[in-house]
Write a structure and sequence with these properties.
By secondary structure, this protein is an alpha/beta fold. The longest helix is centred in the first third of the chain and has 16 residues, at 62-77. The strands form 3 sheets. The chain has an 8-stranded parallel β-sheet with strand order 1-8-2-7-6-3-5-4, with helices on both faces. A 7-stranded parallel β-sheet has the order 11-12-10-13-14-9-15, with helices on both faces. A two-stranded antiparallel ribbon has the order 16-17. α12 links the parallel β11 and β12. α6 (143-151) packs parallel to α8. The protein has 2 domains: 3-219, Rossmann fold; 230-389, 3-Layer(aba) Sandwich (Rossmann fold). It is built from 14 helices and 17 strands.
Length: 418
Amino acid sequence: MMACGPIKGIKMDFDMLGLAPRLVAALAEQNITKPTPIQKQAIPHAMNGRDVMGLAQTGTGKTAAFGLPLLHALMKAGSKPAPRTVRGLVLAPTRELAKQITDNLRAFTKGSHLKVGLVVGGQSINSQINMLGRGADLLIATPGRLIDLLDRRSVSLGDTHFLVLDEADQMLDMGFIHALRRIAPLLSDDRQTMLFSATMPKQMAELAAAYLTNPVRVEAAPPGKVADKITQSVHFVPQAGKTELLIELLDSHRDELALVFARTKHGAEKLMKKIDTAGFATASIHGNKSQGQRDRAIRQFKEGTVRVLVATDVAARGIDIPDVKHVYNFDLPNVAENYIHRIGRTARAGAAGRAIAFCSADEAESLRAIEKVVSFKLPVAGGRPWQVEKPDAKTKNGGPSRRRRRPSGRGNKVRRAA
């Protein structure tokens, strides 16, 4: 049974949570003094050694919610890791998210003896093997690269007493459950496990039951809830008219950062080239890009030399750039919950932002699924809604009905609403 143990209605600073003074000082150097709701709820339980299941929307400080108590425990232990061992492990579904977590935790440990390592695909495995040869206090990894290193016997997890599964819902979506089943049994039986997610699909309860022991459930926002300061809207537009509409909207805010999501790698690259031809400083990130190209694109976007970044869902949980003002869903996601993660790239850390969705006729059902997740109909900014007509299961005389021809060979019949 999951216990609910949030600490509500209490004003506190980080030093009131009992964190190591070095961590509190590192936070103060970054002008971080007030814990966010998810941090306020999760940190005390984690520091008491409890397994934690945390639910919170993106941009609410989940990394510090699990990272600070984990680093506190590693500092308190005092011992150094043996060669090829790690004492704590954080698994993340994408390279971008893993790097973001690593950067944040290294900032918290600056000046301490703790060694924070990163292993992801797309980078030299030999340099990662050399790093692990010296041991790491905390390792942030993507599951695929970690398994490669385990198969090479470059790392042992027998001394790993802390496990964090970050963005666990996306791990499920991306099929990493099979990798987790290989990795988890290799860790110490005496371990503390924390699971953090922005949404709560049904499989999450099964995942928690399998890998967490009597977890405390903490929740800063209902699953599917997005930041209050995100203004959402939808344009109903034929697929062929999307690019023209996007360029028109981008032109209205040329000096502000915009993130554009496409469904496929090929589509993202093709769209990026069209936006670039229209005179915008543009870059793209997707699975066909090398890690160096992806890192460079995100760096340029963060610095503002690139104003428009076109991405597939590989970036939906790995970009933490406070200045992103606009998120465009050029293609609606196939998985409705991914809409939450995409638009969570704006309105970071209390800022305001806009999320604009484009819906073609073939995407009408995808929009309905998204609206079910967010629990309201997106305001219409342009065009007339597509109307989905579902055929009846039976005709009036009880016989089988004739199914109407489906556009593009998929979905139900769609036409413009009157």
